[in-house]
Amino acid sequence: MNHTRPILRLIDDFKRRRRDTGLLRVQQPESGAPFTLGNLPNKVDFGALNAELMELRQDLHQVACSVLAHVEKYGDVRLIDRLIAAVPAFIDTHPLMDWFTVFGSVEFVDGKAKYKARGQSAIEVATALPFWTIPAEE
Description:
The chain is mainly alpha-helical. It has one domain (about 5-20, about 45-135). It contains 5 helices and 2 strands. Strand 1 (about 105-110) and strand 2 form a beta hairpin.
């Protein structure tokens, strides 16, 4: 893939911001190994962590809006899968997937985005309504 394309640079930049954030990184234990807290710092500044999480979610929302515009223009949903794969493990991707389904011509089958021709996306509304504010589907 050509990573000089602006839409791909947005996702790559998001990955860099995610990697550089000071948020705690949870390491995946080896298969069958018990989870331990390991070498977590003794004092955690939860206010700073919350601020960084909000900033990361705002960045993710901006990239998601750009990806939604790309899907509307080209009908190419592969970038949605790339974006969801770039989301850190501590952020639930289900609200983001629901957001793409509600505002875009997208459906998810077995966790993968599929294009669903159904007219125009609601990009203006999607821009104003971040994915974490979408009520969970029952």
